[in-house]
Design goal:
245 residues; alpha/beta; Rossmann fold; six-stranded mixed beta sheet; binds adenosine-5'-triphosphate; AAA+_ATPase; ATP-binding cassette domain-containing protein; cell membrane
Length: 245
């Protein structure tokens, strides 16, 4: 269960952006779908604890992560969320093993060659990363980077997984393959996820409910399959056409 009600005003030079997001859902897999600059990443940053809203609350499975009225603001670590960033966020100067172990416990910044804790070793095996553990991010493929970032996110045994355009850096065929892998992983772990995407195929395969975001606010919600129907009936689909229920 996700229950979010947040506001945040951001100024950048003469430009201002207002985030005003209300989202309440019992769906296990939610997608935030909207155009560039609509506030998707800011929303996910607020959930992850990387940005603090001016007011409001964020609750995940009835646990309060943030609430200005109660002066609650858990640190990103205390929130126990997995966050897969758009560009994967791997540290270029750390090996795959060091990247995966990063954040698990003190001292993992520079772990020994075979020092990966059990929680991380499990995901190394699941994603077949054994042979690249001592490689640096620049030395591995796009799919391996994505799997390494996923292994890092999953190693903290998160209560909720945040996926920010997880497939956007991949070419079309790898994208299809990784989409299937992610969907299989979601089914296996039954872990709640919030997915940010511009891609209808991603939303259909990786979400049960889509929330449409525009200009910093949620403007409607629908089943992922409705996105396809709307696109075929409205070829020049705009988010205005998607203002439904
Ligand atoms: N740190 C910041 N300082 C100033 N403005 C910001 C900052 N972060 C985001 N913004 C502005 O807030 C708005 C929403 O940004 P956000 O990154 O959430 O969009 P998005 O929907 O995730 O876009 P994209 O799909 O392109 O990633 C944008 O207009 C952006 O310029």
């Amino acid at each position: 269960m996700i229950d979010i009600n947040i506001t945040r005003r951001i100024r950048a030079g003469k430009q201002a952006f207002g985030l005003n997001v209300q989202l309440k859902s019992k769906a296990g897999r939610i997608a935030l779908f909207g155009p560039s600059g609509s506030g998707k990443t800011l929303t996910v940053h607020a959930i992850a604890g990387l940005m603090h809203p001016d007011s409001g609350y964020i609750r995940v499975n009835e646990r309060t992560l943030f609430d200005t009225s109660k002066a609650i603001c858990l640190t990103p670590q205390e929130r126990k969320l997995g966050y897969l960033q758009q560009d994967y966020g791997l540290f270029p100067h750390l090996t795959v093993a060091q990247n995966i172990g990063f954040g698990l416990k003190k001292g993992m910044f520079n772990p020994g060659r075979h020092a990966l804790p059990e929680a991380a070793a499990r995901w190394v095996e699941v994603f077949g990363l054994q042979n690249v553990l001592h490689s640096y991010p620049r030395e591995i493929s796009g799919g391996q980077k994505q799997r390494a970032a996923l292994a890092r996110a999953l190693s903290v045994q998160p209560n909720l997984m945040l996926l920010d355009e997880p497939l956007s850096a991949l070419d079309a065929s790898l994208r299809r393959k990784m989409r299937e892998e992610l969907a299989a992983l979601q089914a296996r772990l039954q872990m709640p996820t919030i997915l940010i995407t511009h891609d209808i195929d991603d939303a259909v395969m990786l979400a049960d409910e889509v929330h449409l975001i525009r200009d910093g606010s949620i403007v409607g919600s629908c089943h992922p399959s409705s996105l396809r129907e709307l696109q075929s009936s409205t070829p020049s689909m705009t988010l205005d056409a998607l203002k439904i229920a």
